[in-house]
Design brief:
heterodimer, A: alpha+beta, mini-chromosome maintenance (MCM) complex, domain 2, 4-stranded antiparallel beta sheet, 3-stranded antiparallel beta sheet, 3 helices, 23% helix, elongated, disordered C terminus, B: 179 residues, mainly alpha, Arp2/3 complex 21 kDa subunit ARPC3, 0% strand
């Protein structure tokens, strides 16, 4: 008598298990790629940048110019065309922002920089980010503990 | 001449069995609404009523099974879940039904394989609707959990379904080993 469970069933289940494992690996990887900063200008997302990578970002809109510097896992506003320059002083004493939901806000230029992530951000948004190796790793996270 | 037992390909038999299946699916939905088998993971369900749909697909044919499927989704949606939950069930239920129907048609897989593919596609359908409705593609981070749970529940329900179908005489074969 033929048995119910066929070889093709086992293959199908194995394939699905492999795909499952792959999605686990994918999401685990997305989670460990570290924190990012989201730059919003005039209500729209200007870009998302990894904190684990030192970089200088120029934010130019109709309202003015800002320069955000990411260094050593922290983000700081280093240049701004706004009249008061408050944004450059925000979080200056800590050397920048690096914890989730910390923000730097430049009201005159309508620029908002906020820290996101440590896992909640998926890969889809990464193409906005600049160059670089997304797999560059977790080193950026370690500086967050201070 | 009196025929003993049901005439399995008669319309009356199929209609009657459809009603029984729909009622059974409602009871399973109710049981799961009261006692969720979610293994402690949010969003995971055993989906006992899918066992009914699988059994229906193999016993009374795709047309009647489809009617059972739609009936159970709409009724249990109104009774237990609410209309928005019904939308999710509908997406999962229709996709998994389509997948199970097509895989059954190929005749490559047993009910166990068919059910496993159905379980996974059910969760994929729900997740897609959730991503569209909430406009958060991030929700796909939940994909691994739903892939694994879909596979596991699909195997469990498929095994139960295969045993039921064998007992009912709709599929042949010894339990799981060659003799």
């Amino acid at each position: 008598m033929k048995r119910i469970l066929r070889k093709s069933d086992i293959i199908l289940i194995a394939v699905l298990a492999l795909i499952s494992a792959f999605t686990v690996w994918l999401s685990w990887n997305a989670g460990s790629s570290g924190k990012t900063v989201r730059v919003q200008a005039d209500g729209r997302t200007y870009g998302i940048y990894s904190l684990s990578e030192d970089q200088v970002i120029d934010i130019d809109t109709d309202l003015g110019h800002n320069q955000l510097t990411i260094k050593g896992g922290k983000a700081m506003m280093t240049e701004a065309s706004c009249p008061d320059g408050y944004c450059m002083r925000q979080h200056k004493s800590e050397g920048g922002i690096d914890s989730s939901n910390e923000t730097i806000i430049c009201l005159p230029n309508k620029v908002i920089v906020s820290v996101e992530g440590g896992g909640t951000d998926s890969g889809e948004t990464v193409p906005d980010a600049v160059s670089g190796s997304p797999a560059a790793g977790n080193s950026g996270d370690s500086s967050g503990g201070s | 001449m009196v025929s003993r037992g049901p005439v399995k390909n008669s319309t009356a038999y199929r209609v009657a069995l459809s009603a029984v299946f729909a009622a059974l699916a409602m009871i399973f939905s109710y049981v799961e609404a009261v006692l969720p088998f979610n293994f402690g993971i949010p969003g995971v369900k055993l989906g006992l009523s899918n066992l009914v749909v699988l059994t229906a697909l193999y016993s009374i044919g795709a047309g009647y099974a489809f009617a059972v499927n739609i009936t159970r989704i709409i009724l249990s949606g109104f009774l237990f879940g609410g209309v928005s939950a019904m939308l999710y069930s509908l997406a999962g239920g229709l996709l998994s039904f389509a997948v199970m129907y097509l895989l059954k048609k190929t005749d490559i897989f047993s009910p166990i394989g068919v059910s496993t593919a159905g379980g996974v596609s059910h969760n994929l359908g729900q997740l897609t609707v959730a991503a569209l409705v909430t406009e958060t593609p991030k929700i796909y981070l939940y994909l691994p959990v739903l892939m694994i749970s879909g596979t596991v529940t699909g195997v469990l329900l498929g095994t139960a379904g295969a045993l039921i179908l064998r007992r009912m005489g709709f599929i042949s074969g010894s339990a799981f080993t060659d003799h």
